[in-house]
Design brief:
The protein is of the alpha+beta class. It has 16 helices and 19 strands. Strand 18 and strand 19 form a beta hairpin. The longest helix has 15 residues.
Length: 474
């Protein structure tokens, strides 16, 4: 049975929080918290008891202890760019990490950097570049999202194909546990076989098991050359054939393989400033392909041209544009980066962040659209995503003759259609966005019962009072 939602702080807690962080860094003013209680798409509008902004790990620990003593829930929050309602409070204190934004150490020789949870992702990318290294995590929201949130959701992005999810980019963590104790495991070791790998309890846990305050991140050799191409094709079958060809002939340099259907690209062309069609003709689908290398002498354009030439001969592709300059390469990337935001002017959308085995991606992109149109013939199917790792953003935009509210009423029906297909292909209903509030019931439906039992056991062991980001994931 769920606990009743708190509507106000218990007496004395506000003053305690002021003592911990200073009066300037705590507020209960509704106006100050307005933007922090709303999910990015407006699907959830929550209620916060207060907003507190600690400046150190010890302050986080003291806040957690104070809230636990008063039986007050805590919602950790970074840049608040999530898409599943994971940072929306429901009668809780928001603990914002934006003041905890120090890069504690950059170690180029060890290829690591130790950073605090409130660091903006773009800032970390720039710091790595200044050290002659690469931090490969890249998201459309990288100018505002924070690394703590990226870690808590196990964010994916456009470089997973070569470098892996966020989980693969972490060597160590510092975490404040639900009882206020501090787990200090900030090591930069590639090999460390000393018991359970505790960091993986917290990566992807969405703040339900503790608050990540710092991390040791892996760095990689900085790319010295890159080749970027937009390739036109008939659809998912041709794209899968092209991906298999690219993987076979350029696996050591293939860092990106993104799939974009025409409707998604058209929305970008219609709504994103400065974006233009790179090709003279309209095509059914496109692939954004990028090769990178730390070798300054590597002729990646020649390699790209050679593989695409074979694809043309095999009739897998219709046309291709290879960026001839940094500006042209960035222009191609801008088309990809504006995909999500360009759907907003088209009205309400029902988003599915799913993953299937790469061998099933083309099949999914045939079966799922047909099933959705069978339910609603005028629905606009807008699929795109990380083709090379099986992660698709299978979004549905409302029909032109429906209101947003009418369309959003169909969320449960479309979830069942899409998620049943994903489950039938041994896929995942959440590839990189997390569970949050949006997919809690779906998780219970599709997750292995034994896995759910273990998750419940871990949650009960670490957070028996249920005060860490309640109502999310489980």
């Amino acid at each position: 049975m769920s606990k009743p939602m708190l509507v106000a702080l218990p007496e004395g807690l506000y003053q305690t929080l002021e003592t911990i962080v200073g009066a300037s860094y705590v507020t209960s003013d509704a106006g100050d918290m307005a933007l922090r209680v709303v999910e990015d798409r407006g699907l959830y509008n929550g209620h916060a008891l207060a907003l507190v902004r600690p400046g150190s790990t010890q302050e986080v620990a003291d806040i957690v202890k104070a809230c636990r003593a008063a039986a007050v829930p805590i919602v950790p929050q970074g840049g608040n760019t999530g898409l599943v309602g994971g940072g929306v409070p429901q009668g809780a204190v928001i603990l914002a990490t934006d003041r905890m934004n120090r890069i504690r150490e950059v170690d180029p020789l060890n290829s690591t950097m130790t950073v605090e949870a409130g660091c903006i992702l773009l800032t970390l990318q720039q710091a790595a570049e200044e050290a002659g290294r690469l931090f490969p995590l890249s998201l459309a929201s990288e100018g505002s999202c924070q690394i703590g949130g990226n870690l808590s959701t196990n964010a994916g992005g456009t470089a997973v194909l070569r470098y892996g999810n966020t989980r693969e980019l972490v060597l160590g963590l510092e975490v404040v546990l639900p009882d206020g104790e501090i787990l200090s495991d900030l090591n930069g070791l590639r090999k460390n076989n000393t018991g359970y790998d505790l960091k993986n309890l917290f990566i992807g846990a969405e703040g339900t098991l503790g608050i990540i305050t710092a991390a040791v991140l892996k760095l990689f050799p900085k790319p010295a050359t890159r080749s970027t191409a937009m390739v036109a094709c008939e659809g998912p079958d041709a794209a899968l054939a092209l991906y298999d060809r690219m993987r076979a002939q350029a696996a050591d340099s293939l860092s990106t393989f993104e799939y974009i259907e025409r409707m998604a690209l058209q929305m970008v062309l219609d709504h994103a400033p400065g974006c233009t069609d790179p090709m003279g003709e309209v095509h059914p689908a496109y692939c954004l392909v990028e090769l990178t290398s730390p070798d300054a002498n590597a002729d990646l354009d020649a390699r790209m041209e050679a593989v695409l030439g074979e694809a043309f001969e095999a009739e897998e592709v219709f046309d291709a544009v290879i960026g001839a300059s940094e500006a042209q390469r960035n222009a191609l990337w801008n088309l990809r980066e504006h995909l999500s935001e360009s759907q907003k002017p088209e009205g309400a959308s029902i988003k599915h962040d799913v993953a299937v085995p790469v061998s099933k991606v083309a099949e999914f992109l045939h079966v799922a659209p047909d099933a959705c149109r069978a339910h609603m013939p005028s629905v606009r199917v807008v699929p795109f995503g990380h083709f090379g790792d099986g992660n698709l953003h299978f979004n549905l935009s409302r029909p032109l003759d429906m209101t947003d509210a009418e369309f959003l009423e169909e969320y449960p029906a479309f979830n069942r259609i899409v998620h049943d297909i994903v489950a039938g292909m041994n896929g995942s209903i959440s590839a990189e966005h997390g569970i949050g509030m949006v997919k809690r019931k779906e998780l219970r439906r599709y997750k292995d019962p034994v896995a759910l039992k273990l998750m419940d056991t871990i949650k009960q062991a670490l957070d028996p009072e249920g005060l860490m980001n309640p109502g999310k994931v489980l």
